[in-house]
Automatic annotation (TrEMBL):
NCBIfam families: 3a0106s02 (TIGR00969), permease_CysW (TIGR02140). SUPFAM superfamilies: MetI-like (SSF161098). The chain crosses the membrane at residues 25-51, 78-100, 112-138, 150-170, 210-236, 256-276. It comes from the Bacteria. Its main location: membrane. The complex is composed of two ATP-binding proteins (CysA), two transmembrane proteins (CysT and CysW) and a solute-binding protein (CysP). This is Sulfate transport system permease protein CysW. The lineage of its organism: Bacteria, Pseudomonadati, Pseudomonadota, Gammaproteobacteria, Moraxellales. It is a multi-pass membrane protein. Residues 74-277 form the ABC transmembrane type-1 domain. It is found in: Cell inner membrane. InterPro entries: CysW_permease, MetI-like, MetI-like_sf, Sulph_transpt2. Keywords: Cell inner membrane, Cell membrane, Membrane, Sulfate transport, Transmembrane, Transmembrane helix, Transport. Part of the ABC transporter complex CysAWTP (TC 3.A.1.6.1) involved in sulfate/thiosulfate import. Probably responsible for the translocation of the substrate across the membrane.
Length: 296
């Protein structure tokens, strides 16, 4: 009886394997399409950026990078990311903790609001800030009366970047926390741990790689954001231009080598982000395997 059962199981397994096996020409066709898309849409544009950046020589390249306007754009980009990323880390951890660990009225609304920047165009997000803080906006007259400048200044750039990058940390942590459940936190509380001790010694070690993954993506988007920042910055050269805006200005002025030189900085950022992202994924997968082995 057991021999018959084993034979039937083997036959079913082989049949399912055959049913999902595609012809050789189908596999190679799909692989070729994927490679062509990868090369034409990702690799070739990246190579083109560096080729054009160094076309007129290394001196022109470095002169473009040490230009005062470029240095100002770099500083503003770093400043914006340095403010936006920590704010989104705090919000993302708090939102993920609330959604994954508690049941409350309005939970689905909070989840929807977290995803809102994904569905709203960055240009529309910038326009919303204009309608709020502009001269004809809700708070524009009051801000002008008190000599407070939000729009076409650093605060508006930071606000636009924060809005665009809101989902990245929260969206990485919510499914991770939901999968982990609440048993460990409840056990820590029963043993007398405070809320902060529970988070620091139980929750944070379990989510550290997911948190780092979200921070990397959030930082990359903050430094590379163009649409929303373009609407609220005012394009004041040397003051409110981030790196993407500075690239646009250089390109519109037909200084192509300088434009591609500055763009190469963003390309370097993309490459570093990809390397860090891959490293975090590997570490997170190893941690998950260790956790599964411990459970089994």
């Amino acid at each position: 009886m057991s021999l018959v059962t084993s034979s039937n199981a083997l036959a079913i397994k082989l049949q399912s394997r055959d049913s999902t096996r595609e012809p050789t020409w189908v596999r190679y066709t799909l692989l070729t399409i994927a490679l062509i898309f990868f090369l034409s849409c990702l690799i070739l544009p990246l190579i083109l950026v560096f080729v054009e950046a160094f076309r007129q020589g290394i001196n022109v390249y470095f002169n473009a990078l040490i230009n005062p306007d470029t240095l100002s754009a770099v500083k503003l980009t770093l400043l914006t990311a340095a403010i936006a990323v920590p704010l989104n880390v705090v919000f993302g951890v708090a939102a993920a903790w609330a959604v994954a660990k508690f049941q409350f009225r309005g939970k689905s609304i909070l989840t929807t609001l977290i995803d809102l920047p994904f569905s709203v165009s960055p240009v529309i997000a910038g326009l919303m800030l204009v309608l709020i803080f502009g001269m004809q906006g809700w708070f524009g007259p009051w801000l002008m009366d008190h000599d407070i400048k939000i729009l076409y200044a650093v605060p508006a750039i930071v606000l636009a970047t924060v809005f665009i990058t809101v989902p990245f940390v929260a969206r990485e942590l919510i499914p991770l926390m939901e999968a982990q459940g609440t048993e460990e936190e409840e056990a820590a509380i029963v043993l007398g741990a405070s809320g902060w001790q529970t988070f620091r010694k139980v929750t944070l070690p379990n989510i550290k790689w997911g948190l780092l993954y979200g921070v990397i993506l959030c930082n990359a988007r903050a430094m590379g954001e163009f649409g929303a920042v373009s609407v609220v910055s005012g394009h004041i050269r040397g003051e409110t231009n981030t790196l993407p805006l500075h690239v646009e200005i250089l390109y519109n002025e037909y200084t192509y080598s300088a434009a591609f030189a500055v763009a190469s900085l963003l390309a370097f950022l993309a490459i570093i982000t990809l390397i860090l992202k891959t490293w975090v994924e590997i570490r997170q997968e190893k941690q998950n395997n260790r956790n599964d082995s411990a459970v089994s």
